[in-house]
Design goal:
With 155 residues, the protein is an alpha+beta fold. The protein has one helix and nine strands; from the N terminus they run H-E-E-E-E-E-E-E-E-E.
């Protein structure tokens, strides 16, 4: 009976050592395979009462090849909660192979926030990014929109 308990203890210890070793290997790989950087690409602004929309990009961007997160901030002002008037914000970033990665946020109130996309660049090369926003009325009729884009190089 005592021998079975000892074997059980040894097996548990080996299992724990294996898990700890695996966790160490994962954390080492995570540094190489994890998100390389988080890059802000610009800001988007809408005003529901003023029927205005504006986008401001940061300009040409260089990012490391691999897994990255790209962000953009948004701000919607002069919008009563859930009145039907609202705004849409879109962040679109292309990888080195030309595939688009998109995040979109719809709001129906005055608010601020951040949208983001994370993906692997699929190697190095030239790409681009785009920010777009719109303000609309109760019937989703566009009142104002703006868009801007710039170059993105994966190195």
């Amino acid at each position: 009976m005592k021998q079975n308990a000892s074997i059980g203890f040894v097996l548990a210890a080996l299992l724990l050592a294996g898990i700890i070793g695996l966790a160490g290997a994962v954390s080492e790989d995570a540094g190489e395979m994890g998100i390389l950087s988080t890059i802000s690409l610009g800001n988007m602004y809408t005003d529901g009462d003023g029927d205005t929309a504006s986008v401001s990009v940061v300009g040409p961007v260089t990012a490391p090849a691999g897994l990255n997160t790209f962000t953009a901030t948004y701000r919607n002002v002069n919008d009563v909660d859930n009145d039907g008037q609202g705004a849409i914000y879109r962040l679109k970033v292309y990888d080195a192979q030309g595939a688009a990665h998109t995040a979109e946020k719809r709001v129906d109130w005055a608010t601020t926030g951040t949208i983001s996309v994370s993906f692997n660049s699929q190697g190095s090369g030239d790409a681009q990014y785009e920010l777009w926003c719109e303000t609309h009325d109760l019937f989703d009729t566009e009142k104002a929109s703006d868009t801007d884009h710039d170059n993105l190089d994966y190195v």
